Amino acid sequence: xxxxxxxxxxxxxxxxxxxxxxxxxxxxxxxxxxxxxxxxxxxxxxxxxxxxxxxxxxxxxxxxxxxxxxx
Length: 71
Prior knowledge:
Layout: H1 5-17, H2 19-32, H3 40-43, E1 47-50, E2 60-63
Parallel strand pairs: 1-2
């Protein structure tokens, strides 16, 4: 998926406003482009290289995060 220039600017501005603003913008993008984002069913078939920081449905991961490690 390629974002338009306007969408890129809005997402960049959201990144400056913090996580809540980013999450709100991602919800808007998910509604506009639902097939561009993973959903629980598609995540369940995905294998990550790094262990997800939060509980996500997935088939597995290659490398576990160390406790307290930031990725």
